[in-house]
Write a structure and sequence with these properties.
Helices cover 92% and strands 0% of the residues. It contains three helices and no strands. The termini are far apart.
Length: 83
């Protein structure tokens, strides 16, 4: 009796899982078929934020006293070699 009930429960779970997978496939197909106009805007926004963060980091690094001194030394040496 217990084995029969266990098999019935397993069949039910298997059927529910298969139905859920079918539902996910249908929803995914509908999502792919729709226009992705909003996605491009979101991707551009994320890219812009990332570029601004990277620019801020570069500015912080380049404006540090150590890097400023190195850059001015490199420019000074280049000017001495050129002229």
């Amino acid at each position: 009796m217990l084995i029969r009930k266990t098999l019935e429960v397993r069949r039910l779970v298997h059927n529910w899982r298969r139905q859920a997978e079918d539902c996910v496939r249908r929803v995914s197909a509908v999502a792919r078929a729709r226009s992705e106009a909003g996605m491009s805007t979101a991707e551009y926004a994320v890219g812009t934020i990332a570029a601004c963060a990277f620019a801020g980091l570069l500015f912080k690094i380049v404006s540090s006293p150590e890097v400023r001194k190195m850059l001015s030394d490199v420019i000074g040496r280049a000017l001495q070699l050129a002229g």
